[in-house]
Design goal:
Blueprint lengths: L5 E3 L2 E3 L6 E5 L6 E6 L3 H20 L2 H17 L1 H12 L3 H20 L7 E5 L5 E8 L2 E5 L5 H14 L3 E5 L6 H8 L8 E3 L4 H8 L6 E5 L2 H14 L2 E5 L4 E5 L5 H13 L9 E7 L3 H14 L18 H16 L3 E4 L14 E4 L6 H4 L6 E7 L2 H8 L4 E2 L1 E5 L3 H7 L6 E4 L14 E2 L2 E2 L4 H8 E8 L6
Parallel strand pairs: 7-8, 7-10, 8-9, 10-11, 12-13, 12-18, 13-16, 15-16, 18-19
Antiparallel strand pairs: 1-2, 3-4, 5-6, 6-22, 11-21, 14-15, 17-20
Length: 474
């Protein structure tokens, strides 16, 4: 049984605490590794290594930092199959789907790092009196990245690019539920010792990292409850936090779209990665004129999503990450049925081992139900029939969450109106669309702090002004 280690200052080492956590394959329920529970001492050592390495890393030319990150990205790409297999083993994602997302994350890392070459780290404005103003953007120093279990490799890479290219060093703490791929990712690291450090563990490592006085920014992705704690801790220290938290993302479907094609797209958005995506489609509002056709097609699509071990070819949905996550899905379905909803597909656990749950479609739901008001993070598609596009838009906007939303319509006026949904990202006719220019900040309880494009560099740097005037005449 392999016991995982921390990476501190370029060296792999055991935790200072003897507590261990089981890493469980959710398809078989077998223990496949053990990881440290974490402690404040582990964090102190990793932060100290990051602080020591930061001046030399920041002193490198931007082009050199970008080149080193690009080389690491190329190495990751060569091992993408291996990393996808580890993600499957630790959290159930089918290998082919994992590989697709890892490939995208590698490309994203290279693109985000390359943005540093055109970012305004230094700008000079000359004035008529001969004086000049220099606007500098300095790296913050040592920073922290705390990532969730659902995309272990992509979430780490998505956060690291701008932080590192801007001249910061980083301590990474992945979720204790999926540490295998993160360990392998940093075994492939080619950056100077201490530039990136890895500490494993649960809240025993996460809390002292988020509240460490030498960590100048915490980039956290996770639950609303944990995000509030991170924000409170960084606030007390007057340090920065970028928080991407939960979502209950709506879908609004207009009358003029193709019901079958739209149902296939919605099924993908609701069931891919077994619904374990922050931006999964979790509330579906469909116009009454096409509702029957759409629902029938969605039910048929849900029944086509084959479950099984993600290592097996043809499997479209692996297990949920663990029994705790499956219990949330069960509870949301049971609550909806008790309140009058109808199960149109799925809704019953399969026999045998593994934390599996089928693609499930509910109708007859309303916003009083947990399935419509709280994040499910599972393969559940609750459908509400609305009398108009405007009603769908209005009901989609009724939520304490505001991460993303998707709208299917061909009406130009409705496309324009969709921008009113309070969300960081609104996709029109294509879920997960957009490129490296994407810039957003979650609304409501879904988080705070803008990310993407130049906003990531704004968050990773501290602006300062140097004004230079001519010396007074003697």
């Amino acid at each position: 049984m392999k016991t995982l280690q921390n990476l501190v200052g370029g060296m792999w080492e055991d935790s200072l605490d003897d507590a261990l956590l089981d890493v469980v394959d959710p398809a078989t329920e077998d223990v496949v590794a053990r990881a440290p529970g974490g402690c404040g001492g582990d964090i102190d050592r990793a932060v100290a290594a990051a602080v020591r390495a930061q001046p030399a890393w920041a002193a490198l030319p931007v082009s050199e930092r970008v080149a080193q990150l690009s080389t690491w990205a190329d190495t990751i790409a060569e091992h993408a199959d291996e990393l996808a297999e580890l993600e499957c083993r630790e959290m159930g994602k089918p290998v082919g789907i994992g590989r697709t997302f890892i490939d995208g994350a590698v490309a994203g890392l290279k693109a985000a790092a390359a943005q540093a070459l055109s970012y305004g780290f230094e700008e000079t404005v000359s004035h008529a009196d001969g004086s000049a103003t220099r606007i500098l953007r300095h790296p913050l120093g040592a920073t922290a990245v705390i990532t969730p279990w659902n995309f272990p490799v992509p979430m780490v890479l998505g956060a690291l690019g701008p932080l590192l290219a801007a001249g910061n060093t980083v301590v990474v703490k992945p979720s204790e539920r999926s540490p295998l791929s993160a360990v392998r990712l940093f075994e492939l690291l080619n950056l100077p010792p201490g530039v990136v450090n890895l500490v494993l563990g649960d809240a025993r490592a996460g809390v002292p990292l988020a509240e460490h006085e030498q960590i100048r920014l915490v980039h956290f992705t996770g639950s609303v409850e944990a995000g509030r704690e991170v924000g409170a801790g960084t606030g007390r220290l007057l340090h920065r936090a970028v928080l991407e938290l939960g979502g209950k993302d709506p879908v609004v479907i207009d009358s003029g779209v193709d019901p079958a094609a739209t149902a296939a797209a919605v099924a993908f958005g609701a069931f891919i990665n077994t619904g374990q995506i922050c931006t999964s489609m979790e509330r579906i509002y469909v116009h009454q004129e096409i509702a029957d056709e759409f629902i029938d097609a969605l039910v048929q699509a849900a029944r086509s999503y084959t479950m099984g071990d993600g290592h097996d070819e043809g499997v479209m949905m692996g297990p949920l990450v663990d029994g705790r996550q499956r219990d949330i899905v069960r509870r949301h379905v049971a609550d909806a049925v008790e309140r009058g909803a109808t199960i149109r597909a799925g809704g019953t656990d399969p026999d045998g081992k593994g934390f599996f749950y089928p693609a499930t479609v509910l109708t007859g739901v309303d916003e009083s139900m947990l399935a419509m008001s709280e994040e499910t993070f599972g393969p559940l598609a609750p459908v509400v029939v609305v009398s108009s596009f405007e009603e769908g838009l209005e009901r989609a906007s009724r939520s304490r969450f505001g991460l993303a939303a998707t709208v299917y319509t061909d009406d130009p006026d409705h496309i324009a109106a969709a921008a009113r949904i309070p969300a960081g990202v609104v996709w029109i006719n294509q879920w997960q669309g957009g490129g490296p220019e994407r810039l957003y900040e979650p609304a409501g309880d879904s988080g705070m702090g803008a990310t993407g494009s130049t906003a990531a560099y704004d968050a990773a740097t501290r602006p300062a002004t140097v004004h230079i005037a001519s010396r007074p005449a003697s």
